[in-house]
C-alpha cells in the first residue's frame, strides 16, 4: 500500500500572507493557516494558537512550518496537536534566542511607543533588516509591509516580546547565516542557509523546498 503524501501546514510571518510562500514547491498536501484578527488587544499567544489550531485535525500527522513570527505560533499549535512536527524557518525556538535589540525593546517597553508603521516610512531600512535584494524581492517586501495591518502588527510584536516559551517541544530549525532581524544566535541550527537573510523564504525558496521535501520523505512527522 502506497504511503500517504505528507501534509504541510504553513504559517507565514508577521503581517505576511501567501505571497511569501509562492516560491515554495512542496511535494504533498499543502495548507496555509491564514492569520486571524486578535479577539482583544491582549489576546494571549496560546489562546490565539488554539483558534488557529482549529484548522488542523487533532490526530493528523503533519508538518507545521512556521516562518519568523509564524514559528512561535507553530510551536504553540504543536502543543495541541500531538502528531505534528514543527519546522522553524527564520524563527526562534524559545525566548532565550531573542536578539539583544529585541531584549532591549522588551525591557524598556519601547515597542509600545514606536509605531509599527515605522518600516513603511523607511522601506530601505526594512530592506536591510530583511536582507531583500533590489528588484522583485524589494518590491514584494515593500508591498507586504504596506499591506500590514498596524493593529495586528502591534499585537504581534507585543506577543513576540512577551512570549513564554515554557513547554514548547523540539523543532527543526532552518536559518540563514545573515539574518539581521532574528539572528540564529548560539542555539543549534539543523539546516543553516549560507548567505540567507530574513527574507530567505523568498530568496532561497528552492533550497528550503528541497530540505522540507527531504524531511517529509525521510520520516513520518512525530513530536520528540
From TrEMBL:
Pfam families the record matches: Abhydrolase_6
InterPro entries the record matches: AB_hydrolase_1 (IPR000073), AB_hydrolase_fold (IPR029058)
Domain of life: Bacteria
Residues annotated as domain AB hydrolase-1: 10-208
Protein name: AB hydrolase-1 domain-containing protein
Amino acid at each position: 500500500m502506497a504511503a500517504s503524501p505528507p501534509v504541510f501546514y504553513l504559517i507565514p510571518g508577521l503581517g505576511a500572507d501567501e505571497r511569501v510562500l509562492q516560491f515554495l514547491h512542496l511535494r504533498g498536501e499543502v495548507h496555509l493557516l491564514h492569520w486571524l484578527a486578535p479577539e482583544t488587544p491582549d489576546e494571549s499567544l496560546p489562546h490565539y494558537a488554539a483558534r488557529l489550531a482549529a484548522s488542523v485535525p487533532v490526530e493528523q500527522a503533519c508538518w507545521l512550518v512556521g516562518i519568523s513570527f509564524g514559528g512561535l505560533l507553530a510551536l504553540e499549535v504543536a502543543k495541541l496537536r500531538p502528531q505534528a512536527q514543527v519546522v522553524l524557518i527564520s524563527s526562534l525556538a524559545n525566548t532565550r534566542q531573542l536578539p539583544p535589540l529585541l531584549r532591549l525593546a522588551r525591557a524598556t517597553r519601547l515597542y509600545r511607543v514606536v509605531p509599527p508603521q515605522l518600516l513603511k516610512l523607511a522601506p530601505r531600512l526594512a530592506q536591510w533588516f530583511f536582507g531583500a535584494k533590489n528588484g522583485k524581492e524589494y518590491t514584494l517586501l515593500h508591498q507586504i509591509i504596506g499591506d500590514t495591518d498596524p493593529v495586528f502588527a502591534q499585537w504581534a510584536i507585543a506577543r513576540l516580546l512577551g512570549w513564554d516559551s515554557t513547554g514548547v517541544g523540539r523543532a527543526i530549525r532552518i536559518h540563514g547565516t545573515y539574518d539581521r532581524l532574528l539572528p540564529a544566535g548560539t542555539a543549534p541550527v539543523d539546516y543553516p542557509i549560507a548567505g540567507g537573510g530574513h527574507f530567505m523564504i523568498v530568496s532561497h525558496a528552492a533550497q528550503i523546498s528541497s530540505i522540507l521535501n527531504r524531511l517529509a520523505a525521510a520520516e513520518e512527522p512525530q513530536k520528540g
